[in-house]
Amino acid sequence: MPDVRTSARPHTSDTGGGPSAPELLDFARRTASDAALVSSLPLDPEGRTWIRLDGPGGSEAWLIGWPPGTGTGWHDHGGSHGAFATAAGELTEQSLAAQLPTEGWKTLELADGVDRERRLSDGRGQAFGPHHVHQVLNTSTDTHAVSVHAYYPPLPLMRRYSRTGQVLHLEEVERPEEWA
Description:
Blueprint: E1 4-7, H1 21-32, H2 35-39, E2 49-54, E3 60-66, E4 74-75, E5 81-88, E6 90-96, E7 107-109, E8 115-121, E9 125-128, E10 134-137, E11 145-152, E12 158-164, E13 167-174
Parallel strand pairs: 1-2
Antiparallel strand pairs: 2-3, 3-11, 4-12, 5-9, 5-11, 6-8, 6-10, 7-13, 12-13
């Protein structure tokens, strides 16, 4: 079943330097604690669902529902910094503690010791910089998770990767018009 997309509030434009990653994390945590907003997200048993939110200072923000066993796959945020916080359930973030080159490669061998993993339950979150590569997973077999994500500047693109052991492959580059 395909993902369900809805729009909650209009997206605003940036009028300044934009919010920092810690400010985005504060927004994500506050928004994740909004029980009425979180409960307004339609949940699908098979696919992720989302509502686009009005983020602070021209940032891009999303409320996302995660059915059991779903995830994003490895990706980056096209040079945007950001944050996310879990509103319900628990998510696992697997990330790389290394800055990857943004262009000029299709296959990259990762050094030992770059893998990081953290579990984020209700209200816990993570801020990240512009070169963050990660995947987010709902590893539960029976419980939906819900989270809030925010990015600044609004995502110019997302690079999607596959991974086999220590080898990362650039698979595709997605642009915002593909998410509309």
